[in-house]
Amino acid sequence: MTFSVDQFRSQIRQGIAQTSLWRVLLPSFKTGPFGGSPSSYALNVICKAANMPGRQMLTSERQYGMHREKVTYGFAQEDVSLTFYVLQDYGIKQYFDEWMGKQINYRGDGANEPAPTINYKKEYVRDVKIQQLKKDVIFDLSFNFQGPLGLELVGDIVTPDQIAYTCLLEDAFPTTMNAIEFSNEGGLAELNVQLSYTTWQGVQGFSLSSLTGGLIPSIPALQGLG
Question: What is the spatial distance between Cα 102 and Cα 125, in angstroms, rounded to a whole number?
Fold first, then answer.
């Protein structure tokens, strides 16, 4: 296969997606007077690694006369793995302890239900988003607000044009929380969690150029003209 450098540049002028530009949007559980669990922004900041799931078509072979071919009868999808840095308040560990506790009431409720009880699925599933972000951003709208009563609000605003692709995990919930390893060699504490879900949907990113009919080209396109 042969092609010119100009042809290659024209095809990748939007830039190649980078695996270091992403974010995870997890649900918040309001359990305290000011919302006891970490915010979605805080969870995303301490998330060290994540994966966007794939999908496997399940097939079986059928014989058509002299010809044999595969046909699809279903699909399978893998769990999502998330790895977090563990801060000294162990807030991330408590967050997933609480989420898993919504699945099973480990201690029951006393005399009426002394044994652990299982809750309905609708009580513990939540939607989770994994997003690929673009390298060239148009706006930087991070904020840090010091509110009343000593409350500090921090976060960032990602504009739609900064999102290249969104993977929406429908009805997700944690099924595995791996052990936190200790050793005398030192190092940073990490927590790995596996999320299962009903299915996932892919949502293509939004661009200003498509909205304006090309009157406002995207920043990568402008850079490709240089």
Answer: 9
Amino acid at 211: L
Nearest CA to 193 among 176, 179, 181, 172?
176
Per the structure, the complete domain to which residue 15 belongs is given by 5-224
Q: What is the DSSP secondary structure assignment for residue 20, as one 8-state letter?
A: T
Model pTM score: 0.74
Q: Shortest CA distance to 206 belongs to which of 140, 172, 175, 161?
A: 161
Tokens of 10: 């024209």
> pLDDT per residue over 93-140, tens digit each?
999 999 999 999 877 555 566 678 899 999 999 999 999 998 765 444
Q: Considering its fold, how many domains does the chain have in total?
A: 1
Which DSSP state fits 225?
T
Tokens of 147: 């509110």
Rounded CA separation 177/195 (Å): 9
Q: In Å, how far are 85, 102, 153, 189 from 89, measured between CA atoms?
A: 11, 21, 18, 12
179-225: per-residue pLDDT in tens? Answer: 999 999 989 999 999 999 999 999 887 655 444 444 434 433 333 33
Phi/psi for 184 (5° steps) reads -75, -5
The dihedral region occupied by 86, where left means phi > 0, alpha psi between -120 and 50, and beta the remainder, is: beta
**Model confidence over 76-103: pLDDT tens digits?**
999 999 999 999 999 999 999 999 999 9
DSSP 33-65: TT--SPPHHHHHHTEEEE-----EEEEEEEEET
